[in-house]
Amino acid sequence: MTSTPIPQVDLALITGSANWGIAIPEDVAMDGIDLIARDLSFQTPWGPSDNWKLFRMDGAITVDGQTRQALCMYSHGNPRDHIDHECHRRAYWVLQQAGVRRILACSTLGAVNRAIQPGDLAIPADVIELTQTPYSLLPGRQRFDASGKRIICADGARTLAALAEAVWPQGRRVHGIEQGLVAGHSYGPRLTTPAEAMAFRTLGADVLNHSLAIEATLAREIGACFVPLAYVTAGMNDYMDRSTGALLQQDVLSGLQMLSSTLALAVLAAMTPVCPCGCDAQLAPQPESRHARW
Questions:
Q1: CB neighbours of 218 closer than 8 A, spacing ≥ 6?
Q2: What is the mean pLDDT of the chain?
Q3: Cross-strand bridge partners of residue 34
Q4: What's residue 162's pLDDT?
Q5: Which CATH superfamily is domain 11-277 in?
Q6: pLDDT at position 250, please?
Q7: Cβ within 8 Å of residue 132, ≥6 positions away
Q8: More confident site: 169 or 1
Q9: Measuring CA to CA, which residue among 75, 120, 107 is closest to residue 236?
């Protein structure tokens, strides 16, 4: 891949395990969306960030009638041939340079709350990320206060829930942000052990994920709104059943991949460039006196 200039866009879509095996937007039959470029690579201070796409949404499908472009990041920025947890920092640096203000990220979840079942779509309101993201984008400790409150965009979450309610399969529920669910983070790629699942539940987590909390934190650090589109592929009973080595319910994954990919594009088209909830105000510059003298 050849490094190219970073386009200026307001919106970004992050694909993940919810969409593996589906090329977005090419494989999604949705009028009004056209691929402009794929296989884009952008140079960052920590090396290249690869596997990007740029697509166009026609004004006929956007909420304000304006034609708009969006960046699409493959699999949370993960390289295709090795594990590299620093990939998130490179990817979000690209989003920062692009001027992205609203981010929709697709992934799958494990549920440690027995009321949440495989096949449910769950929009958490908060995260547990005890490492506090070792790969930060903030320019030092003294220049910004990055609040941990309202880390999931309520406006985007409501848009997602409303559109999901209309298309999500009967018998599977949509858990909105008003339920106050908490997503616990572990980096992976190994899936969570039964003991770890119990530990996260004790800490107050309802669902588990390998990317959501990291991306929510980085979105806060670049002043962008963040909302996750994530559905459950393993329940608490799946975690605790030590009689089998299997964890994920593959039929759930295969049954929801295309639906969630189509839903993601519909949600992105329904987002205004500027979020009315004021998520960007949660990143507050500090007075110069706090870092200019030492």
A1: 88, 89, 92, 133, 136, 137
A2: 91
A3: 56
A4: 98
A5: Nucleoside phosphorylase domain (3.40.50.1580)
A6: 66
A7: 217
A8: 169
A9: 120
